Amino acid sequence: MTTSRTVLVTGGNRGIGYAIAERMIADGHRVAVTARSGEGPAGSLTVRADMTDAATIDAAFTEIEAELGAVEVVVANAGITKDTLLLRMSEEEFTSVIDTNLTGAFRVVKRAAKGLLKGRFGRVILISSVVGLYGSPGQINYASSKAALVGFARSLTRELGARNITANVIAPGFIETDMTASLPEAQQQQYLDSIPAARFGRVAEIAGAASFLAGDDAAYISGAVIPVDGGLGMGH
């Protein structure tokens, strides 16, 4: 039986974030999600926040703290892509992805840190991607932002590890979401051919890894990268 905690999932209105929020609710946690639009799953508290704007993140935390108590588990999931090859990529296309995916995680974790330290408990779970360590053409901005989360989690582990706070990374592979469904059939097949499991992952499988990392059994795991990718990124 896992202790009930206050959990925040950023970008919890669809896809992986929504599935993680659903699973955390099923596990008996008090769950809030941030979203720019839309709503989190039934039983969650949805708050508005923009990952590029620290003031909106601060306001979201204040609302969550008033409703559910101090945040104890942070799942930094919100992310964007602006895919294009390096020679065509504008500086704005690079920096905007970094600002949301990496600096956004920094803003959220920094705002949560005081509460984690005060409560002498914390689980920080950063949602990265197999692409972060494996690489992907057309995704220099996205891959850079996702690779950086590994250094973030490991540095955070060294800073806060003695205070019963863990920081880990989940690296999903190709997962069945609206984003993969919209890919051309030939491209989907090409991806499938490279995955040892010979199928795309399910959002519930990412949620299962997050559930484990948030739970009591994962207290001695920190600074780890947990691949949930059907074997695609082995050795990376």
Automatic annotation (TrEMBL):
Do you know which SMART domains this protein is assigned to? PKS_KR
- Keyword Acyltransferase among record annotations: no
Residues in domain Ketoreductase? Answer: 5-178
Q: Which SUPFAM superfamilies match?
A: NAD(P)-binding Rossmann-fold domains
A molecular function (GO) term? 3-oxoacyl-[acyl-carrier-protein] reductase (NADPH) activity
Query: Which EC number(s) are documented for this chain?
Result: 1.1.1.100
What keywords are annotated for this sequence in UniProt? Oxidoreductase
InterPro entries, per database record: KR_dom, NAD(P)-bd_dom_sf, SDR, SDR_fam
Q: Which Pfam families match?
A: adh_short_C2 (PF13561)
So what family is this one in? Belongs to the short-chain dehydrogenases/reductases (SDR) family.
Kindly give the NCBIfam families that the UniProt entry links to this protein.
PRK12826.1-2
The name on file for this protein is 3-oxoacyl-ACP reductase FabG
Q: Please name the source species.
A: Leucobacter allii
Q: Which gene encodes it?
A: fabG
